[in-house]
């Protein structure tokens, strides 16, 4: 786990084998690189939460690599949504596989956060909304 | 009830990861129930296993999943040899959401609420004092059938299998 400073922006990026957060010029990109469940988040969630507090731009959450999402993962995605709501920022999910997509629908989160198949499509929509 | 088939070994001890359970369980479920039920059962069993890890005082070393017919209804039965959940009935009652409740994702104890939402006819049995075990019976929707065979299937082999098999649930 390490935090690197992107010279073009003020907030530091966050990089971990299971999760990364990069601060781009006009948005932030949160990418999960593994399943999003209780086990994956052990020891990592506090670090993710800390990095989320630095988000000040529209947030794109890439779920392409997530094959399985459980209630702990939903909790973290809900936290991301709440952060963007509190700071009046747009948010979108992209690349959701069938299981995560079904769970997001089951818990109702996808009625609040739009889910796009492709990252580019999601980014366009996110920036347009912004 | 009788376990008629036994297959994939799980990692020894409750050191098994929920991800390993899913990997072993997936093919079993896909062979026996519809894709829609696979998704629900996979998530539910995962939530039970991870809750066990989180709340059991002594972790389970064994897990057994099978399908059983009980009183004319089909259940997915999940048994383990961990210490019973503390005050389960209380939490189960609290997980009963009002129809007017807000979106599910906003709530605490989401894992249990998902279980209750998906399987309102769930039964939980446990035994403490010496020979521990827990058993969840998730009632499948009426009309659902298990392919091949309607009684019991496998999963796991574990160290205390005879104990679980002997538990008359």
Shape estimate of chain A: globular
Helix content of chain A: 25-40%
Number of helices of chain A: 5
Q: Report on the biggest sheet of chain B.
A: 4 strands, antiparallel
- What's the alpha carbon Rg of chain B, rounded to whole Å? 15 Å
Instruction: Indicate the multimeric state.
Output: heterodimer
> What is the CA-CA span between the terminal residues of chain B?
8 Å
Which structural class should the secondary elements of chain A be placed in?
Answer: alpha/beta
Proportion in helices of chain B: 25-40%
Element-by-element helix/strand order of chain A? EEEEHHEHEHEH
What amount of the residues of chain B lies in strands? 15-25%
* Count of β-strands of chain A: 7
- The number of helical segments of chain B is 5
In short:
The complex is a heterodimer of chains A (130) and B (169). With 130 residues, chain A is α/β, with parallel strands linked by helices.
Key phrases:
heterodimer, A: 130 residues, alpha/beta, B: 169 residues, alpha+beta, 4-stranded antiparallel beta sheet, 5 helices, 34% helix, globular
Question: Could you characterize the architecture of this molecule?
Answer:
The complex is a heterodimer of chains A (130) and B (169). With 130 residues, chain A is of the alpha/beta class. Helices cover 38% and strands 22% of the residues of chain A. Chain A is built from 5 helices and 7 strands. In chain A, strands 1-2-3-4-5-6-7 form a 7-stranded mixed sheet. Chain A is globular, with a radius of gyration of 13 Å. Chain B has a 4-stranded antiparallel sheet. Chain B is an alpha+beta fold. In chain B, helix 1 runs antiparallel to helix 2. Chain B is built from 5 helices and 4 strands. Chains A and B meet through helix 3 and helix 4 of A and helix 1, helix 2 and helix 4 of B.
């Amino acid at each position: 786990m390490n935090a690197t400073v992107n010279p073009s922006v003020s907030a530091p990026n966050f990089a971990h084998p299971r999760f990364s957060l990069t601060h781009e010029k006009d948005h932030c990109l949160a990418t999960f690189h593994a399943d999003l469940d209780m086990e994956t988040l052990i020891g990592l969630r506090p670090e993710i939460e800390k990095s989320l507090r630095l988000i000040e731009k529209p947030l794109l959450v890439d779920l392409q690599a997530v094959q399985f999402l459980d209630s702990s993962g939903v909790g973290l995605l809900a936290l991301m949504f709440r952060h963007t709501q509190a700071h009046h920022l747009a948010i979108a999910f992209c690349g959701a596989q069938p299981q995560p997509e079904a769970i997001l629908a089951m818990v109702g989160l996808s009625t609040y956060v739009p889910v796009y198949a492709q990252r580019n499509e999601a980014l366009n929509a996110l920036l347009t909304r912004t | 009830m009788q376990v008629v088939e036994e297959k994939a070994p799980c990692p020894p001890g409750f050191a098994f990861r929920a991800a390993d359970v899913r990997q072993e369980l997936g093919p079993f479920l896909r062979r026996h129930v519809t894709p829609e039920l696979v998704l629900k059962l996979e998530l539910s069993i995962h939530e039970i296993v991870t809750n066990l890890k989180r709340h059991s005082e002594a972790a389970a070393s064994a897990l057994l999943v099978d399908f059983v017919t009980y009183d004319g209804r089909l259940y997915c039965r999940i048994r383990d040899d961990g210490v019973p959940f503390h005050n389960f009935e209380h939490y189960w009652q609290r997980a009963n959401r009002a129809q007017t409740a807000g979106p599910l994702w906003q709530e605490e104890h989401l894992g249990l609420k998902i279980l209750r939402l998906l399987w309102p006819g769930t039964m939980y049995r446990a035994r403490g004092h010496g020979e521990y075990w827990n058993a969840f019976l998730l009632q499948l929707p009426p009309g659902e059938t298990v392919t091949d065979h309607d009684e019991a299937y496998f999963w796991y082999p574990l160290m205390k299998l005879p104990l679980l098999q002997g538990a008359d649930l």
